[in-house]
């Protein structure tokens, strides 16, 4: 099947898995209004949404989008996925790097909308306008995303410019926080896109293209590109991401009592130095990789050697790591040995699960086990305790397989598990999404609660807290920062820019960089668009049944000291009222 690609920045490819059909439609109305990326994807999801259908319904759409900067400027390497989340029941929004954004750009697709359910396991092969629905029966049921990637690399053409995205066993089994692996080292994570793929019998997508990039003013484009490249490479704006990467935060957060440890019972990990970015970089790092179109090299890859016999037979694994993974499967589980953390990361990668969610779920289950609130009959003989790698490895495997009611509950997320078995006071989720690795203060809690994705750094609440720690910010000033950051990121995520480069792409820089592409926007217009995109996403969340007043805050947030001391619950509730009033909710 072939759809003629028009060199445009408004091409939407619609794919129907049920009938194995596709059509290409130009939607300049969407891209004029919302720029691209998250703004356009939100509108396309809204158009395909039906209130009587849940996240795993056959007709529930998956939307992928890129923006006008994708594949054009440095660090504009990500694509956005929009879907209804099977984990939260609300808006699912996720970003991934690798090659997917440039592959979509060169294929001529600004958005891809996938609906329906294949009659058998399939993968989509999209090359140069040719769309093929290929039988994936032979790769369905494989034990690892790594194996799937190897097979598809051999089976599909255009090595070096294609993108291969695929699910693992967790997605096939419907684990509600299953992720989608993108080009081995990147992921559409957090909100369960892998489970949506699995529900559609969609194992993978392989995508490439050979279109020419066209700009309106080549001379100005060359000037803008060189200026941006200089900022990215020759200044310190992105230096930390290349050097130690985000794992530099392990020691930094530990020093300011913000590092969640043993299910947020502490904010200081006595073995932090062992699994710090410094130690990993000195003793385990083997290379740094970049997403296509990025010169930074922020993907830090470690090597882990594992003996599998007494004859020095060794299996070698390359394992990507970053701060959130080290928090989720390291400090939050009391694992102190780098090899143990890396092995657990590798196991989760192969299963295809979101590692933040898995770490929080294992931490809750461990605390429940140690408090004897669940039995070894329920855990099938797995005795969970802090720092016990072998039982964590067994638990991950059992969660994916879901052989009994307890592990089936864990596969649905910590919110469901705690509703069934208790321990809601220390089930660390907001809006049913497991929380990331910061405990800095009021800004973080309010930001995670009110943010579009919950439990996600949409508005950098942790940053506001760190500023408040150094200078006495009022609660209203913190809320103002959260709102401003939400709106700015709406624009950045519509262009689509990797947020590591957010200090490079300031509003004035964005205005200038749009001009050679034939797009005229003022800073004031960008501000308005950012606010409109945020409100559009919140409106869609409300259609999915969301109400900010119904979000429950775990007591543990208010029991464990943060960077700014014990967080007062009443103060958080008052700050949420300020937020709602300023937003007009």
Automatic annotation (TrEMBL):
Domain Aldehyde ferredoxin oxidoreductase N-terminal positions: 9-211
InterPro entries for the chain: Ald_Fedxn_OxRdtase_dom2, Ald_Fedxn_OxRdtase_dom3, Ald_Fedxn_OxRdtase_N, Ald_Fedxn_OxRdtase_N_sf, OxRdtase_Ald_Fedxn_C, Tungsten_al_ferr_oxy-like_C, W-dependent_AOR
Single GO MF descriptor: 4 iron, 4 sulfur cluster binding
Family: Belongs to the AOR/FOR family.
Keyword annotations: 4Fe-4S, Iron, Iron-sulfur, Metal-binding, Oxidoreductase
Taxonomic path: Archaea, Methanobacteriati, Methanobacteriota, Stenosarchaea group, Methanomicrobia
Name of the protein in question: Aldehyde ferredoxin oxidoreductase
Known cofactor(s): [4Fe-4S] cluster; tungstopterin
Domain of life: Archaea
The enzyme's E.C. designation: 1.2.7.5
